[in-house]
């Protein structure tokens, strides 16, 4: 039953001092208050916390909030306490508490004084805690950062997998509210399956960030790329920005070079000692430095509203990561410029990083990388590609806020060239990788080609009027089209898919925008 609107508004004003709800908040809160399982998908900054805090404060009993980061738990509890006059309205229970502190928390819970209890998943693995919760009146369970359940999410936590089983031990009648800022269809279905949310009301907010400008730039040699970055920063003098790189060494090098070019910059990565990290984070927050050059270790829980640009010096390992990392720009709704430098060499670097992983991890990783590559090489509106990735259909002729919309690329017919590629892969019996196939197509000999007598094949040199860059780019697009695939088990061997076989039988028109620009023999002066 929907709670009377006035009562909700009064509670909102009383507990938080806000005059209106944001987005879906009111509907979500009604859903929880009426005892339904509820699934909330809302981008960062959308106001997720209030969705469980308010109903927790309004319901009899105490709500359990499962949260993955012990470090952030104290913060959240302090925030709730800040709104209330009573300190015992919210507590957390995790491994950082002393025996005496645990006793106090338990006493407040038993006395019914506490409305929100933040717990780590580990807390729920302890039988004595479960037994204790069984005796309490629990209003509902909120699972924050629910994407941690999924291996497809950006922050998988195995303990999250066991949550449902532990919740059921407390009671199998407790409503569950799951919240996440990750909305890829795969992650969504993992969450629904794992928490048994089949009958849940689902609330999905739009992930569009209209104020962010998305741009891909070809990555050239290191000094050229850095010159390009310096130029951009000078054009944005005095503004704050983050530059993400793949490895620690590069953060230091890049920061040094920026400093040498008159930019106030510092490096940030997990290899620095905690006090240096805290100090540099503070410098950034207090604008003693303009630019922070960081590995992805930087950003979780950082709330600086006026970050004006986010530059990726290397392509991120998934579009999800890209969305989260660029999402730190323009939190105040004003300008946010997101640039990603892209080269095929960086893609190979990412693939290389996975070499020691298990087969299934490599498969998953390769698929995520492919989606990022698709984004980078696409001639379609960037916003449309990103939102499509989150299962959202974005209707636009021209968003006006991405490079592809501002400077549409010219497209060309490649039907016959696709046929050449497919024939070559077939003629080589699907036993060779991209470089070899392209050598054959462009008629380049090598000792290996001579040994196998592949220079005798019909397709040898059939595509020599185009260079290797062209063929590389076409190959990537054909993978996106699903005409060919890289065999992951036999690392990198090219295969023709069923769709490719059908294409060979009956070729059809294929128009693509070709980006030779990404093949520039860029950076090989970086190690991972
Ligand atoms: P999320 O967890 O989705 O990233 P938060 O819960 O941290 O978002 O909320 C983001 C910001 O929005 C916070 O500063 C919060 O106080 C504010 N906020 C949430 N709901 C409202 C509201 N109804 N009116 C005004 N501000 C709100
Ligand atoms: Zn666009």
Description:
The chain has 528 residues and is an alpha/beta fold. Helices cover 43% and strands 15% of the residues. The protein has 22 helices and 17 strands. A seven-stranded parallel β-sheet has the order 3-4-2-5-6-1-7, sandwiched between helices. A six-stranded parallel β-sheet has the order 8-13-12-9-11-10. Helix 2 packs parallel to helix 3 and helix 19 crosses helix 21. The chain is globular, with a radius of gyration of 26 Å. The C terminus is likely disordered. Zinc ion binds next to helix 16 and helix 17.
Report the bound ligands by name, code or SMILES: adenosine-5'-diphosphate, zinc ion
**Spans where pLDDT lies below 50 across 5 or more residues:** 521-528
Strand order of the largest sheet: 3-4-2-5-6-1-7
What proportion strand?
5-15%
N-end to C-end Cα span: 56 Å
Domain Helicase C-terminal: 225-374
Domain Helicase ATP-binding: 29-201
GO biological process, one term: DNA repair
Cofactor: Zn(2+); Mg(2+)
In short:
By secondary structure, the chain is α/β, with parallel strands linked by helices. Helix content is 43%, strand content 15%.
Q: What layout of secondary structure does this protein have?
A:
Layout: H1 5-16, H2 25-33, E1 38-41, H3 48-58, E2 62-66, H4 70-83, E3 90-93, H5 99-110, E4 116-119, H6 121-125, H7 127-134, E5 138-143, H8 163-170, E6 176-180, H9 185-195, E7 201-204, E8 212-218, H10 222-235, E9 240-244, H11 248-260, E10 265-268, H12 274-285, E11 291-294, E12 307-312, H13 319-326, E13 336-342, H14 344-353, H15 359-377, H16 382-389, H17 403-406, E14 412-413, H18 415-427, H19 434-442, H20 447-452, H21 468-481, E15 484-487, E16 493-496, H22 498-505, E17 511-512
Parallel strand pairs: 1-6, 1-7, 2-4, 2-5, 3-4, 5-6, 8-13, 9-11, 9-12, 10-11, 12-13
Antiparallel strand pairs: 14-17, 15-16
Helix pairs in contact: 2-3, 7-8, 15-21, 18-19, 19-21
The structure holds adenosine-5'-diphosphate and zinc ion (ZN).
